[in-house]
Design a protein that fits this description.
Distance between the termini: 110 Å
Largest sheet: 5 strands, antiparallel
Structural class: alpha+beta
Number of domains: 3
Helix content: 40-55%
Mean pLDDT: 81
Number of strands: 10
Shape: elongated
């Protein structure tokens, strides 16, 4: 078909090269899943680290396999070194984000700020980590929506990992009551709500804080410890709010809303002056 340097490229050689590429890809997957992962099953390495090492070894295997395929069909890659260098510089500028995500993926595998199964929040995306690859991370939200997050976001942005280390966290729930309400009763009822919730930890104990005198309410804060932030955080907070509302209704405690007083002042004096000026003009 054509010549590449001193090598003659034929249709047969291209077909053989394509078959070898497919064979390398299939072998890489088989070796990674049937050999490497089985070896890791006998170790105590974290699952995310095992997966990362397996992926990196797979990429190395693929690159070596492609190189050997070129050599097998008689294509000398050394003759393409100059062209590959020039093309590489141009592609490098266009692939900065991809390279950044690739390097970030290596950093994630090395430092393990996140792992498969962790509940995380980054860049407005919240959910559970399903898969970590070298370029991106798959996150599944509570609505079962799969989000593909570039790995660079986990390095350049602030990441909240509810599952990292100790999953026990303290949740602060603000609540306001009307002026004149018995503050001691409010404190007692809020502590009862925390004690009656099965997902609330008993140690450390829940606390109630009288935070401030608001414009329209006395502002309190219920602080409870729980491990549910790694499982179903919105459901936990919702159940606490439902229980607070029911408890306050049972004891006739009002939850106020912002109010404004409007005072209308008489404009009789101004109208009289205007009338006097009209009479003077008529004379």
């Amino acid at each position: 078909l054509f010549k590449l340097g001193e090598n003659s490229i034929t249709l047969k050689s291209l077909l053989v090269l394509g078959i070898l590429f497919i064979l390398v890809i299939v072998l890489e997957k088989v070796v990674r899943e049937r050999v490497v992962m089985r070896v890791f099953e006998k170790t105590e390495l974290p699952e995310a680290l095992e997966y990362g090492i397996a992926r990196i070894l797979g990429y190395i295997f693929t690159v070596i396999g492609f190189y050997m395929a070129f050599q097998f069909v008689g294509i000398d890659l050394s003759s393409l070194a100059f062209i590959a260098g020039a093309v590489g510089v141009g592609i490098g500028f266009g692939l900065q984000n991809i390279i950044n995500n690739f390097v970030s993926g290596i950093i994630i595998f090395a430092e393990q700020p996140i792992a498969i199964g962790d509940r995380i929040e980054v860049g407005g995306v919240a959910g559970r980590v399903k898969k970590i690859s070298l370029r991106s991370t798959t996150v599944v939200t509570n609505d079962n929506i799969t989000m593909i997050v570039p790995n660079g976001d986990f390095i350049s942005q602030t990441v909240t990992n509810w599952s990292h280390g100790d999953p026990k966290v303290r949740i602060r729930i603000p609540i306001g009551v009307a002026y004149g309400t018995d503050t001691a009763l409010v404190e007692r009822l809020l502590l009862e709500v925390a004690a009656e919730n099965k997902k609330t930890l008993k140690d450390p104990e829940p606390s109630v804080f009288f935070t401030t005198f608001g414009e329209s309410s006395l502002d309190f804060e219920l602080a409870v410890w729980t491990s549910e932030m790694a499982q179903s955080p919105r459901r936990f907070i919702s159940n606490i709010n439902f229980a607070i509302d029911q408890k306050f209704r049972e004891h006739d405690i009002e939850i106020p809303f912002p109010q404004r007083d409007l005072h209308v002042r008489s404009g009789g004096i101004e109208i009289k002056k205007a009338a006097d000026s009209e009479e003077s003009a008529a004379v």
